[in-house]
Amino acid sequence: MSEGEFVAKVGGAVGDLPQAQWDALGQEGNPFMRHAFLKAMEDSGSVGEGTGWAPLPIVIEGPGGGIAAALPAYLKQHSQGEYVFDHAWADAWHRAGGSYYPKIQIAAPFTPATGPRILTPHPELALPLLRAVESLCEQNGLSSAHATFIEPAQVPLFEQAGWLLREDIQFHWENRGYTDFDAFLGALSSAKRKNLRKERAKAQEGVDIRRLRGSAITPEHWDAFWEFYQDTGARKWGQPYLTREAFTLLGETMGEDVLLVMAFVDDEPVAGALNFIGAQALYGRYWGALVDKPFLHFELCYYQAIDAAIELGLSRVEAGAQGGHKLARGYEPVRTVSAHYIAHEGLRAAIADYLEQERAGMARDELWLGERTPFRKAGPAADKP
């Protein structure tokens, strides 16, 4: 495409854009960039009026009027639900007399999972899209724009545009060609292998665990999971991000991409974990329980996810943000990257200096964590399965 053939526009909602055109942009099999997921967030009221997340999709139209490129963007009035924490930046800018909010957030709402953030089959449109975001900030007096949990292949696009890069660490499980869970256990050290087996046995004792997908997930299952989700959300965030309607819509429009792991006692649901299925990865999202049973959290969220990923032939499990306890369960440290456009030169320079120091500490943390994975070490002293 040559300059003059396309025009950048700001939309009011992803749901207002043609689904077929949006989904043809190339989400690389990522469920959270699908039109259905983003529309469910809008239609359920999880984003929109009163939430501090105003949909602001930015698109480039081609010569025929169709969508050639897009950014899943939001106008944010706070920094909640992002999992990349910039509260200190906001506080510093407010103390300096500036207004940090509103800002632009390019993300899957409430979802710390890696994925494409620039949606287009035309790589040459990446820079014009990002320049459109910068112009939007400058023309409207917005402090900044942020793209979070960018898939590795797209990080250079933001770097080439001059956005500041920030790194963090998550814990992902990698499928190294395992045929089943026992094959995975065979890759662990003897002590860790025994520990995981004990945890699974205790978690499964007296509990019926079911993996549900598509039409097997009933409204009653969603009602139960909503109770679990509310309990966890109230303890972690003060109030849950998603509405009850969001789960119904996700089940109706993305049922085959949803894996709900439920625990039952005497046929009554007592705990559950919600996952989304991508082309390459299983993404763990939410968990909750009405009972306090040792290791049930690990079983539903981590071990069942590994089982399912092996069964589905997926290459990895992304188990969400934070959680050093995942390390002992076979989840390894992986760097995640966000990109940040800061409009004010002085604030940008201060944040750039901060990020340089933060990266050095992150590299040390990753090295330290990497040396403490539960896998058997190579060499003559390595123990046997």
UniProtKB/TrEMBL annotation:
<dbReference type="InterPro" id="IPR016181">
    <property type="entry name" value="Acyl_CoA_acyltransferase"/>
</dbReference>
<protein>
    <submittedName>
        <fullName>N-acetyltransferase</fullName>
    </submittedName>
</protein>
<dbReference type="InterPro" id="IPR007434">
    <property type="entry name" value="FemAB-like"/>
</dbReference>
<dbReference type="Pfam" id="PF04339">
    <property type="entry name" value="FemAB_like"/>
</dbReference>
